[in-house]
Amino acid sequence: MMSQVVTRFAPSPTGYLHIGGARTALFSWAYARKLGGKMLLRIEDTDRERSTEAAVDAIKDGLSWLGLNWDGDAISQFGRADRHAEVAHQLVAKGLAYKCYCSPEELTQMREEARAAGKAPRYNGYWRDRDPADAPSEIAPVVRIKAPQSGEIAVNDHVQGKVVFKTENLDDFIILRSDGTPTYMHAVVVDDHDMGVTHIIRGDDHLTNAARQIIIYNAMGWAVPEMAHIPLIHGPDGAKLSKRHGALGVEAYRHMGYLPEALRNYLARLGWSHDDDEIFSTEQMVEWFSLEALNKGAARFDFVKLENINGIYIRETDPAYLFQVMVDTAAEVGRSVDHNGLVANKATVLAALPELQPRAKTVLDLIDLAQFIYAVRPLTIDAAAAAILSDDSRALLADIVPVLRELNDWAVPAIDAEMRALAEQKGLKLGKLAQPLRAALTGRTVSPGIFEVMVLIGKDASLDRLSDQTGQ
């Protein structure tokens, strides 16, 4: 019987939770949830100069917002330094690692000699079999693992297949620095073993690391976790996704108005697929997920597709949930006027949302579309709406105002009937009345049905806004 599946997400807290890391966390989370296992969170904070608490908080907040909840407490790799050193010294005692006393100058000379001989610049094993009694007292040693000097190391990968590395290309790498702190390569192995990790899902830039880490697993007699090395996300041009492509942290996507459900859906399709399904719930993803369905080819990030998927989710999401996201987003991005207006006009915004949702692709779109409800007079008229409000349009609005002022039944059917009658009287199509009405009442050219807008904001507000454009 297979032991409980344990995956892990192990980011370095040197910045935000980037989109590639979020996808790795999603796959690790989905696999663990599918098999009733656990996903653990390990903060790889051994780089003390670049690691910050703010970055740790950003990573946790990003995971929580995405709905990728980890099991147990987050583990600090730095806090386990004593355990890493303990294992390194065990390997020395077993004769499977050794102390190296080479000076920086000697290491530089080794690299130069290797290059001159047309070889890769690597450590030549100088202290591998020397008597420690020869050690110079002025040099604080590092600890190096004894890499096999012949044969091969195979990484049996769920995505890449069997990948074979010749051990002659792997030198005796450092596992403990001269100050007693562990290297990344060593700390990762000790932590994954001690945490009971059974499956490692990470970027394929770690594939070479896997071969080195297997050396440490074998030296300690520990079981090697199953591995899945996924291709990195590429930009639209096929190059590795970077800042120049707009590669941002999860927090930025949140502030741009993407829903976590939509981002989960989109990220799942970046390197994993289930038949031709494009839109699916998180529950469906967990049910369908498998490591074998991960793609070997790199996926390309497509903002247009993400926006389209987000639009589908916005159309199908409960208005009450969306309203709260709008309020939270407005506060987070510093749009206090919108935040206060949304909160003060909750019932009206909720009533308008079913009309607004089909017109929006992001939460910011929704906030912009809802502004007509709480906009302060005189309205700010955008360029497109200003182009509609010509002298002829304002004259037409001046004819509309008295008709609306006399209307007692302020409801969509009654307003519609009066405007149709006026349009027919003037020999115009209804749209010729609706367009300047929309521009004057919302300051924009896109809104819900303009008669619905008039009912939502009320008769007095409608007449006041029209007065601002007609002087009546």
UniProtKB/TrEMBL annotation:
Protein EC: 6.1.1.17
Chain span(s) of sequence motif 'KMSKS' region: 240-244
Binding site for ATP: K243
Main localization (coarse): cytoplasm
Compartment list: Cytoplasm
Boundaries of every Glutamyl/glutaminyl-tRNA synthetase class Ib catalytic domain copy: 4-307
Reaction equations catalysed: tRNA(Glu) + L-glutamate + ATP = L-glutamyl-tRNA(Glu) + AMP + diphosphate
Family: Belongs to the class-I aminoacyl-tRNA synthetase family. Glutamate--tRNA ligase type 1 subfamily.
Protein name per the record: Glutamate--tRNA ligase
Record organism: Devosia rhodophyticola
Gene (UniProt): gltX
